[in-house]
Design brief:
- This protein is of the alpha+beta class and 181 residues long.
- The protein is 20% helix and 22% strand.
- It is built from 3 helices and 8 strands, in the order ββββββββααα.
- Strands 1-8-6-3 form a 4-stranded antiparallel sheet, with no helix packed on it.
- A hairpin with a 4-residue loop joins strand 4 and strand 5.
- The termini are far apart.
Length: 181
């Protein structure tokens, strides 16, 4: 087993928060493929896999904190396709996602907050059912278009009625106006 630990991200950074797992338990990961996104007070940084293999277990869930040196996950090295049956089953379960909430990428989370949306309102199209910033922006654009096009045409307004002309004594032929005389 290969242990994936929180790296030192700088002198002043002692703790990070797991922002998103980019690979699910049981999935294959290539060496140097981004495995997890870690957020510190200063930045968000993707942590690549140290070796190719199957992600055997995740030790720190999304949203939880870990200190530098803490165990994040373990990988089982080996060539792709040599996964034990348990890993293949976990991969299939992760792929189906069973209607669970999508993994929200940090940029998507910011876009959701900016547009006052919930992850459940947006269709996730990223790998493994991840919700991407592009998904949020596409949803916002679609909403704007549907709001700009009315669902039904505006009601027809009646044509203007001709002005009524009232005849007064002064307008009668040869007549005198009121108060004349």
């Amino acid at each position: 087993m290969i242990e994936v630990r929180v790296p030192s991200l700088g002198e002043s950074i002692q703790e990070v928060q797991v922002a998103a797992w980019l690979v699910q338990e049981g999935e294959w990961v290539q060496r140097d493929q981004n495995l997890v996104e870690l957020e510190s007070e200063k930045a968000t940084q993707a942590l690549p896999a140290p070796e190719s293999g199957y992600l055997r277990s995740i030790k720190v869930a999304v949203g939880q904190f870990a200190k530098v040196g803490d165990l994040l996950a373990s990988l089982e090295p080996g060539p792709q396709g040599s996964a034990p049956a348990a890993a293949q089953a976990a991969s299939k379960a992760a792929a189906s996602n069973g209607g669970a909430a999508p993994i929200v990428m940090p940029a998507a989370e910011r876009a959701l907050h900016e547009h006052k949306l919930q992850p459940s309102q947006v269709s996730a199209t990223g790998p493994g059912g991840r919700l991407l910033k592009e998904d949020v922006l596409q949803h916002v654009q679609a909403e704007a278009k549907s709001a700009a096009v009315p669902a039904q045409p505006p009601p027809m307004r009646a044509p203007p009625r001709p002005l009524a002309v009232s005849r007064t004594a002064s307008s009668a032929p040869g007549g005198r106006g009121v108060g004349e005389g």
